[in-house]
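HUMAN: Ready with one sample?

ASSISTANT:
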Amino acid sequence: MMDSGSASAMLDELDRLPADLSPLVESASAQLFESQFDLSSLRHGRVILTGCGDSLHAATAICPAMTSVSGCLVTVSRPRRLIASLERSRRAEAAQLVIGISASGATDAVCDALRMAREAGCITLALVGQPDSPAEAIAHMTLILRPPDKRRGPGIRSYQASAVGLLNIGIRIGHGIRHLSAVDVTRWQERILNVAGPLRETLEGSREIAQAVARETANQPLMLFLAAANHLGTARYCAAKRIEASGLFGSAQDFEESCHVERFAMPIDIPVAIIAPDDETKEEAAHAATIARGIGRRVFVLSDPRAKEVRRHAQKSFDLIMPEEALLSPFVSHPVLTRVSAHEADILGRQPFLADLPEIRAGVEAYRRSFKRSD
């Protein structure tokens, strides 16, 4: 039986992503179009997404697509910042929806944000992966999305579930405020389902090259993941998976900002992953890749195979097979570099979530106790 906390389990989760799309979309649609989800008041409203870790990264990556389908202004806020904002204003804007995202449904900061938002007069919706969770007990409405036979491990299938859930919530809002017709709803759901093909092709094409890249990067304690716009959510997610998979550090940064600060980082040969799925960010990507390669970095590019300008600076390139709808590219871009992280862990003989080792947990608890005594 496969250890749910192993690098092999991560690779298995990646391979199951395409097949997960259909049951996730079906479940989301069935739940969201029930009568309890009355979001018609958001015609002139605002939607705020909040979460921690993978949930926050999924929100950032899918925000533009959700804005497009919902017809509303959609923004992303960290839970504590959202709480502080609501405390200052004392009351919510009219018709403001706060969506708290948590795979466990028990993230303290997300639950606190949902509670504060509800007290301030916001409509609240919990997007979770577990029934009967603390978040569900707080929010007005709950969408529960859990991939079939989900096991514990670095969030891969659960990350996709969060993205699917958010986009389907956007579709439901768009239909509720008459921004989308019934035909539009069906078309968008079909577009999500059609991502399975490009996703499967991208995953299949990345197998050998991911292993080759991992052999080059497994001995590097630091790796930079660069992107722009909403793809920075994907970069942050990929950096997080590297840390969770093996304890190797990953850092995400915007293309332009990396040219100002990260270019000074040592050592010279830090591996750099350039995430450039679309034409909107290709010039920034090419500029960042030029500088990274000029410094002497090892540059790896994830892009459409036709993106010659950025690929000419790469030592290795991953082919990203784009979906029919460009706004859905985050569904295809996140798994490739996660595969590299799983192979790094395998090469090093490490298990995911090293920070959960008993001696590390004991050290953290001992420090907390000593800190409380000093107060």
About this structure: Residues 9 and 204 are 17 Å apart (CA to CA).
